[in-house]
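Reviewer 2 asked us to include a model.

Predict the structure of this chain.
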Amino acid sequence: MKNKIRQLTVSGILLLSLPLFLNAQMGNANTSSARSEAKIEDSYTGNWKFEAPNAPEGSTEGDIVIKPEEVIMTFDNAVGFPSKWIKFRNDSIIYQTVFDGATVVFSVKIIDRNNMKGKAVWDDGETEFIMKKDLGVEL
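Predicted model (structure tokens):
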């Protein structure tokens, strides 16, 4: 009888400690994920040139400044359009901005250190979105 109680007690302790163990592992995963996201953000930040071949006239090319907290897009040296939100995930960046009342969501993947490619989507359409690092400008 004492052995059964001892076995149940050991089993109970193991079961009770399982959530603590899993929680600690998830905390470690979140920490390493945050570290890798910070590293990803570093590879995106800076000044970029973009092309959007099928975008409405006047917004087919321009400049982008990517910071960890926002993206600012300009066309023909016009006033910058800041992003409403930005997310860095694995090998991609997703952000949203508003142009002339239209909400546009951009999703691009890093190809290499100086190139990203993806698409821009808005209510009336979408276009390929190509970004090249502006190597002549420093932040």
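Helices lie at 2-44. The first helix runs from residue 2 to 44. We have added this to the supplementary material.
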